[in-house]
Request: fold
Amino acid sequence: MTKNAVSKKKKGVGYWQIAKLLSKSVREYKTSSILSIVFIALETLFECLIPYVMSLLITDLTKLDNPDVVINERQLLIKVLTYGGILLAMAVCSFACGMISGKISAKASVGFATNLRKDLFYKVSSFSFHNIDKFSVSSLVTRQTTDITYIQMCYMMLIRIAMRSPLMLLFSVIMASVMAPSMAWIYAILIPILAVCFLFLIVKAVPIFNRVFDRYDELNESVEENVRGIRVVKTYTREGFEKKKFFKASDDMQTQFIKGERLLALSNPVLVFFMYVSMLFIIWYGTYMVLQGSVQIGQISALITYGAQILSSLMMLSMVFVMISMSTACLRRVYEVLVEKPTIANPEHPLMEVEDGSIVFDHVFFKYKKDAERFALSDVNLTIRPGETIGIIGGTGSSKSTLVNLISRFYDVSEGQVLVGGRDVREYDIHTLRENVSMVLQKNVLFSGTIKDNLRWGNIDATDEEIKEACHIAQADSFIESFPKKYDSEILQGGSNVSGGQKQRLCIARAILKKPKILIMDDSTSAVDTKTDAYIREGLKNALPGTTKIIIAQRVSSVEDADKILVMDDGKIVDMGTHGTLLRTSPIYKEIYDMQNRVGGDQR
Reply:
């Protein structure tokens, strides 16, 4: 499955299911969300009552034009002050409710987004390598950042404007019908017409915004790839090429965004047009009705105000629909991650202890995708006793790393079984298994923080003496001691302020601190010289005598002292034995050895 295929709409998944799942992230902010809606409803009610009170005041004042009415200035002043006091109280209450609602809704929307971001991060953390490969790293970053930001804005609008607008529409229609039923029918005609217009625009816009967020993934992938490989880009002076690639992704996204925004922008002029048409009709027809004596001037004034409120509420609803249209793709993309089931999970009653470092591969077959045409590993049979040192050598693409990834259960076998400590790795608690299997990966990663912080990833409770001992075994102590702050020296993100060899040695020290039953070194000394490599292997032999060690290497010198050496080719173990045995019996091993130990045509 491609990363774009992941973002496509899943059959049978409706918006209600998506909303139901994502609403679980509201959690402790349910009360704030409900209170926000309550205060919005009160604010809207006060706003709709103000025109009614105003109409009563205007109606009473127009009666004073009647010559039969005797004007009492004191009574008039009391009436004006009474109405004025009521209007002022309503305005203050409306303002207070709106302010409280705004504060509460901001807290609720930010809290919801925080919870959703945590839920998404926890979910991604539980993914296997297969799940991450399915979505791609850049796509997961986009969903964690851009998508959730849009969802947060959408939620804010839902608990404020999306609640305020329908209530305003409902209250205004009711009050308009009560005040002037003979004229309120105009809104019964306008509202359905506008609803059809909005529905048409949304149906057209949603697919466009789905494509926009696919373009976001491509843009982030371009940026991530460029930043990670900036040294290579500059070495080969490919800045121009990378700029063109970025501009293409950016321009594609811009084109789709403009297309969608242009379509949704039509909603505003359509609303304004109908608003002025309705006001012109009310003024014209209302004047006729006043002259006929059917309605009062105050009623016309209130009807115009309610008309403005009805159409402004529709305008606000159109803004909500725009945001929902833009967020629909985000909601679906976040939903896809949240419902994704990790391909690696704990059994119902997991084993919580690994007996020893023995490893058995029993007729193991493996492929990365179920529908893949060929297996990455084919019929692998291997037995490793506790404490043995195993070397693995082979050409690029021979599936050496794939083999060891099955031991830590980063992937599950397609057929057969892998046993650690005499039990199938699928029977163990994942955390327990990986605590006992320490890996120094092919791609070494350090995190921002001090050297000590990075080393304590191996053992959070490690003492300073244990840290120094691990660094001594990994041959890292010499360069650490040369730093001004030594073990408290800062490591920049990705370990960009240390060399490749220094990074490898720090990662080896980190793995040693775990004191594992199995230690796997996946080509983890490729950036150090052969002398340092030999010191590291000697240190591991003396410091971890009971630990099973698996060393994947390109250099024969890195594995020649191993108890057993595996020669891999095309996903199979083609030869197995000691260094001396393989030199006599394995053509592949002998060829690798001869190529690495010849200068010109002469043996060293």
Q: What stands out?
A: The longest strand covers residues 359-366.
